[in-house]
Input
Amino acid sequence: MRGGDTMDRVILIKYGELTTKKSNRNYFINTLYNNIKNKLSDYNVNIHKDRAKMYIEFEDKDLETIKSIINKIFGIHTYHIAYIVESNDKSIQEKLLEIIKTKEFKTFKIEVKRSDKKFPITSQEYNHVLGGLVLRNTSNVTVDVHNPELKIKVEIREDKTFIYFDSYNGAGGYPTGTQSKGMLMLSGGIDSPVAGYYALKRGMKLDAIYFEAIPHTSIEARNKVISLSKKLALYTDYINLHVVNFTPIQEEIYKNCREDYCITIMRRMMYRIASKLCEKYKGLVIVNGESVGQVASQTLTSMRVINEVTNIPVIRPVACMDKIEIMDVARKIDTYDISIIPFEDCCTVFVPKHPVINPKLEVAIKEENKFDYEKLIEEAVNTVNTIKVDNKEQEYSDLL
Output
């Protein structure tokens, strides 16, 4: 594939959690294969798969870019930049000698894994064979089984043998698309993008819902959410972002309802809308960034009262994480700096001085019945603007 290359390298992928699957293991592997193929469609690659492994043939000039892409593909436990040879003693020894001439080291260790039991030498015996080969052909080196400068791993499989030195952590989890769709309630804050990341990691497809209240919130706040969606889209193919005009509902709440119950009622309205959007766009669950006790609407009492309006399951991936943990993940997935840009969303722009932390269901129902919210919810659902957010360079402002 790479013409005159003297050392053919591949990216060897290890499945990790996918290997725990039984009858549907092929489904998970095929989904991962398709996700990788889709993400690398702009590159000259060949992808090979079986139930035990997957490897990618690539052009050397693209290696670092491809690594940055596959780092964000869920379903990969670890991967290695490996040299690939035929599974026979002569080919393995010749390739190993060729490789170590390019390395500088004083101590080394050989680890052989013989998956192909038809290979005539056991793993332990071949450790000694290859170790002796390195000692005889390299000056001033010794074996160190505890802390070697160079760790040489040799995996002998039925079709090919892989020789590699380094291991890279993949994103883990399940391939995106192995589960059905969830609807992510995506604000401009720190928590909800992290919740979306964890939902994608468990194999979900995601649509996102953003509630805006222009003119009380700004176009910049919307653009911030689009930027967050683009970051999440790095872990999937694209995200449909449903932008809900929440202004009429929010204004009616603050005109008619008790101030301390406004946040509780606002969240109940959001859940009602999210539930209808689940039905409309075939989402099976609602996903959000609620963290127990973090704000007034996220006490257990508040969650119960707010959750009462829907029968659709609500997934809260960060519910039991503290803020520091959530912030650490936000930095890892590169959403933190976007989330802290100071443009308020509709959850923060009208926060009362003393929101109720232990709301009573009967009071919430009484207060919200002071206006015709059902008509307003139908209007909000019917006037949703949806944009397809991916990582291609484009302007989204004209789509809304």
Observations:
- The chain has two domains: 9-169, 181-399.
- The domain at 181-399 is CATH 3.40.50.620 (Rossmann fold).
- The longest strand covers residues 78-85.
- The chain is about 35% helix and 20% strand.
